[in-house]
């Protein structure tokens, strides 16, 4: 075991060290010492905390699992739980046109399937509906902006199995990033499945000899391991550039860094909203205008998807789940 692996293994029970040796080696080689150690360390230290310390966001309702029981019984006593579950299974397909002067002519009509907040191990009926929809859609490229696991800690096997089933339905390449529900331990298996994980990295998409750029950052919400400067190294900002971020919270940094389009999720659009779609809470440190749907900040366009899955409980009110097909047009 390398010195880096020994360092990372100190936070792992002795019985798990040998089983995790290959994983730690792959993470070291894939991410480097600092990123791997930081991500794993925060996962260990804050796995079941509601209140985060050390500069991480102070309050995380998604970590407060006793809230799930309270909410479930509240909805059941009000006779709303099954109604909310039906709403959560009713995934909408949103078609969103994207026009920008920097979109190359070769990308006219290019369709980008955007999935987010899948939580594929929470409710089999929701996951089955997601697989049904994605298998029937026409698109050129898929991007996924994080949150594959239902809980923020614990086993990853259920989420990985759901993501394997999804990958079998997706056509062509699928670029993905991590959210605050995802463990860095999921990185090697997801890449083995064929997902192209962007861990503060970028990729070039070629179509007819013309190009656009995709930038992806690791979770900015809870883990705070996003590094836009690293991800954007070597970019040609005269080329149309889109950013994948789990949360819209870094929208100002992204706009000032020259991103043209930001795709994100995390907020679930509120998930439980008042009539008319007004979110009770967005669980995100950002203004409400970036909390759902299309928005714009300075010269950057943005879209925050309500997501296909549900958080805490598989229920939704006045906030339908969605998958989004963004269609590009020069303009």
UniProtKB/TrEMBL annotation:
<dbReference type="InterPro" id="IPR051158">
    <property type="entry name" value="Metallophosphoesterase_sf"/>
</dbReference>
<keyword id="KW-0378">Hydrolase</keyword>
<feature type="domain" description="Calcineurin-like phosphoesterase">
    <location>
        <begin position="110"/>
        <end position="269"/>
    </location>
</feature>
<keyword id="KW-0479">Metal-binding</keyword>
<dbReference type="GO" id="GO:0009245">
    <property type="term" value="P:lipid A biosynthetic process"/>
</dbReference>
<dbReference type="InterPro" id="IPR029052">
    <property type="entry name" value="Metallo-depent_PP-like"/>
</dbReference>
<protein>
    <submittedName>
        <fullName>Predicted phosphohydrolase</fullName>
    </submittedName>
</protein>
<dbReference type="InterPro" id="IPR004843">
    <property type="entry name" value="Calcineurin-like_PHP"/>
</dbReference>
<dbReference type="GO" id="GO:0046872">
    <property type="term" value="F:metal ion binding"/>
</dbReference>
<dbReference type="Pfam" id="PF00149">
    <property type="entry name" value="Metallophos"/>
</dbReference>
<dbReference type="GO" id="GO:0008758">
    <property type="term" value="F:UDP-2,3-diacylglucosamine hydrolase activity"/>
</dbReference>
<dbReference type="GO" id="GO:0016020">
    <property type="term" value="C:membrane"/>
</dbReference>
């Amino acid at each position: 075991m390398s010195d880096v692996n020994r360092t990372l293994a100190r936070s792992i029970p002795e019985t798990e060290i040998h089983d995790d040796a290959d994983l730690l080696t792959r993470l070291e080689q894939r991410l480097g010492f600092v990123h791997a150690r930081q991500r794993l360390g925060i996962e260990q230290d804050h796995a079941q905390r509601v209140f985060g310390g050390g500069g991480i966001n102070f309050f995380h309702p998604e970590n407060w699992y006793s809230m799930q029981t309270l909410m479930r019984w509240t909805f059941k006593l009000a006779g709303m739980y099954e109604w909310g579950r039906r709403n959560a299974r009713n995934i909408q397909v949103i078609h969103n046109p994207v026009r920008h002067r920097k979109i190359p002519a070769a990308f006219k009509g290019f369709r980008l399937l955007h999935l987010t907040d899948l939580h594929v191990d929470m409710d089999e009926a929701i996951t089955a509906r997601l697989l049904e929809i994605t298998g029937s859609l026409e698109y050129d490229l898929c991007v996924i902006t994080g949150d594959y696991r239902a809980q923020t800690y614990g086993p990853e096997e259920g989420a990985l199995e759901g993501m394997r089933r999804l990958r079998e339905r997706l056509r062509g390449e699928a670029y993905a990033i991590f959210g605050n529900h995802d463990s860095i331990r999921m990185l090697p298996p997801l890449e083995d499945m064929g997902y192209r994980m962007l861990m503060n990295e970028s990729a070039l998409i070629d179509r007819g000899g013309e190009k656009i750029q995709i930038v992806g950052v690791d979770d900015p919400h809870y883990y705070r391991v996003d590094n836009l400067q690293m991800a954007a190294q070597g970019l040609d900002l005269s080329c149309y550039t889109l950013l994948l971020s789990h949360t819209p919270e870094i929208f100002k940094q992204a706009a000032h860094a020259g991103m043209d389009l930001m795709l994100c999720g995390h907020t679930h659009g509120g998930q439980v909203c008042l009539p008319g779609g007004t979110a009770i809470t967005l669980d995100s440190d950002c203004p409400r205008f970036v909390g759902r749907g299309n928005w714009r900040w300075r010269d950057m366009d943005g879209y925050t998807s309500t997501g296909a899955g549900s958080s805490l409980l598989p229920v939704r009110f006045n906030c339908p789940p969605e998958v989004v097909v963004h269609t590009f047009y020069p303009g």
